[in-house]
Structures are given as structure tokens and as C-alpha cells.
Amino acid sequence: MAQTQPHFLLITYPAQGHINPALQFAKQLTRLDVKLTFATTVNAYRRMGKASKVPENINFVVYSDGYDDGFKPGSDDANLFLAQFRSEGARCLKETILSCAENGTPVNCLVYTFLLPWAAEVATDCNVPSALLWIQPASVFRVYYYYYSKGYEKLIGEDCNKPSWSVEIPGLPLLKSCDLPSFCLPSNTYDNIVSLFKELLHRLNLIGNPKILVNTFDALEEEAIKEIDGKINMVGVGPLIPSAFLDGMDPLDRSFGGDLFEPSHSHNYLEWMNTKPEGSIVYISFGTLVVWSKKQKEAMAHGLLESKKPFLWVIKDKEGEDAEEEISCMKELKQLGLMVPWCSQLEVLSHPSLGCFVTHCGWNSTLESMACGVPVVAVPNWSDQSTNAKLLEDVWGTGVRVIRDEDGVVEGEEIRRCIEMVLGGHERGETMRMNAKKWKEFARAAMKEGGSSYMNLKAFVEEVGSYTQAGADVA
């Protein structure tokens, strides 16, 4: 019997910030009655199984990339890892597509995220339609498109750090060098990542009317998401966040289901939050990749103490080290707040006692702050984070961006200033809080049945389904 249910094959880079939106996208697809196969590495699947409950309605295809114990940044070669991941990932996709066809459940669409341009090549070779799931904002895609495809890299030279320098990119506000993704700056040293972006855009340009699904929503990036050059069409399908914290269509959907870090049950942070006044707590988390220097830890600690606000600080141990040992004022800190190695970020952001989020501005954290209506102190580090911080402060009006010293450290006094601006009686802080509540409502409306992102994703599934039905009719 011919297959009538659309079958999607999804693959993403095996890092937390990529797995979370990809898995949530997969769950959204299954709610629209599609068959979903998720390809991932041995290491990622093992860690997901240990740390969280893996979604049951998704079929996982697990393959070895040669790093079954995980990639170790300090000792493993990044270029070798990317090459292995590419060759073994491509082999897994080809084998999965072929075996599914033989079993009567052919893949109708291959969806891949942005560090995997080779997945589009596999799809073309196997005669399967493909779509890019862009897990950063549409604004950042625009920057990369004009930078790599339209010659804007020639405009961003060594003089870009001058105070008077700026660049105008269609559909975006005026950007200074500190607002650009780090991969576009002369100081960038990640040539391997740049080559992947170039390859991605090259492959998209080879495809007529490429499908680009973006983890954003129409109201948030109204200009940035518009058509580019008459051939690049982006479609908002986000925020890709568990339903319980967004549209409420599935109250049991309270986690992404792909945590790579095991939760610690020794810290009852939610119980502690329950004892604090509404809107009073400062939450500090810089994602899974940022490593804190001793100087920055000390500065953050003193800034928190000077703010006199209760805080929840997620600070991870380095391998073989205690993250708290390097901080000189631990006794005073523990009297004011709580320090944990892990927490459920969405549970924290949606808690009524939460008042402010000090964040690295990774796109997942940025969207989560929006969906939960929490204003932020923006402390961007690299990649898309500087652009996200620019948008949070100057376009969406939900945050304040820190100013670093000449060594790149955010001093304690600056941290205190920004926290007080968000939580104190400052007029700008009141505006941020109001804007945060406004975007929370827009985010939830987008994902509800009939909302812009819901309808965009439904239309995409129906389009793929029309190919499926056409194949069934021929068969």
C-alpha cells in the first residue's frame, strides 16, 4: 500500500543549542500527523537518554561519528571532528533514505540545520526535497546572506571598529561592528565555520525557491523575514519552545526532551524561588559553551552583591574543578542567592518571582525570555549573540546591553547598573517590562492554532504532503 502520511527526516548538529529547537520542531511536526525520523550521533543520543525523557513518537536513527565519548574542545581537532561528522552523517542520511524507500515509507523531505550544508547535497543526490531549519533569527540570516553572497564582506574591514563606522543591510537597522555576528568580523578565527556558511549559501542559491524555516515569528521580525532578492523566502515557525510554556496546547510538553546535561536534584531552586517576592530574582545563565574567567566570575559576584537582589546563578564546573572555589566572596553570595550547575531554564523564566535574566543572548535563550515575558541584561560573547543583543535593546526594547572594559570584562559596577535599570524604578526599566509582556503575548499568539507560525508550518506540511499524495497516486 502506498504511503500517504508525509515522512520527514531531520538532522542537526549534536550540540544543546541545536538539538533543542530541532527536537521541538520535530514535536510540532508530529502534532500535524506526520512520520518523523531524527538522525543523531551515538554520544548525543546516550546523553539525551540519561538526562531526560526522549520523545516517544519520534523514530531515532543513531550513528557513530567517531566521537562516541563526545568531542573534547581542549584536545580534539575541530577540523577532523567536522570532517568525520560530515562523512558519517552523510552516510547515515543516504542509508536511511534508501532503507525507508525499500520499506515502503519513503522520506518526503529532509530537514537540516545550518552547520550541515552537506545534507542538502545528500537530498539532491537522493532526489528528495530538502528544507533548511534556521535556528537563529532571520536578521542574522540576512547579515550572512549579504556578507557572503552580495559582497558586503568588502565593506567590513579593519576600520570597522571606529566609532563612526556602520553598515546598512536591507531590512535591518543600522549596525555597528559590535552588532555584527562575530564570524563577519576581521578578528574571526573560526575559518571552518565560515566555510560552512559559504557552502550553505552556495547550495541554497543552486536550489530554485529554497525552503528556509526560521525559529522566529512574523510579528517579531516583520522586515527581516521578508523575501530577499526575489528568491530567498523565509518562513517563521517559532518560537520552538515546549508547548506548556507557550501555546498551552500540550500541558505535558514541559521540556525539549534532548538535554545533554544531567539535572542535579540536590538543588531545590524552585522551592527557593517560591520564598521570594514576585519579580525580584535575577537569573544568570550563559548557556552551555561559555567558560567564565576568574576575573569575570569575581566581577559578576560583586555586581550581584552590590545589587542586593536575590539571584539564581547557573555556573558549571570545569572538568576537575569546583566552579565556586575561584570566587572570593562565597559566604556573602550564598546569603543572598543560590548557585547551581544546572536548572530547567523555562521553569525558572516562567516563575512569578523571576524579574530579570542576565543572558549571553544565544537565540534559544532570547526567544525563551520573549515567550516568558522577562526583560534581560544582555552580555553577548560571540556568533549571533551581538546581533541578538542589538535587537533586544534597540528594536524590541526588552533589554539593556552591558558595556565591557578594555579587557573585555564586564565590571561589577556595570552589572549592578544594568540590573538596577531593569528592576528598579527607572523609566526605561518600566518600558522594558511592558515590552517584555507585549512580546510574550505575540509569541504565544503565533504558535496557537490559527497563529502565524502554526499556519506557516501547516502550509509547509501540506505542501510536502501534496508531493506524497502525488507519488501515491502514481504508484
Folded structure, characterized:
It is built from 15 helices and 13 strands. By secondary structure, the chain is an alpha/beta fold. It has 2 domains: 7-254 and 449-474, Glycogen Phosphorylase B (Rossmann fold); 269-443, Rossmann fold, CATH 3.40.50.2000. The radius of gyration is 22 Å and the shape is globular. It starts with 6 loop residues before the first strand and ends with a helix. The model has no long low-confidence stretch (mean pLDDT 89).
DSSP strand tally? 13
- Percentage of residues assigned to helices: 40-55%
- Look at the structure and give the mean pLDDT: 89
Pick out the low-confidence regions. Answer: none
CATH architecture of the largest domain: 3-Layer(aba) Sandwich
- Whole-angstrom Rg: 22 Å
Distance between the termini: 9 Å
What's the arrangement of strands in the largest beta sheet?
Answer: 3-2-1-4-5-6-7
Which topology of the largest domain does CATH recognise? Rossmann fold
Q: What overall geometry do the principal axes of the alpha carbons give?
A: globular
Helix segment count? 15
Describe the largest sheet.
7 strands, parallel
Structural class: alpha/beta
Enzyme class: transferase
Family: Belongs to the UDP-glycosyltransferase family.
Organism: Helianthus annuus (Common sunflower)
Pfam families: UDPGT
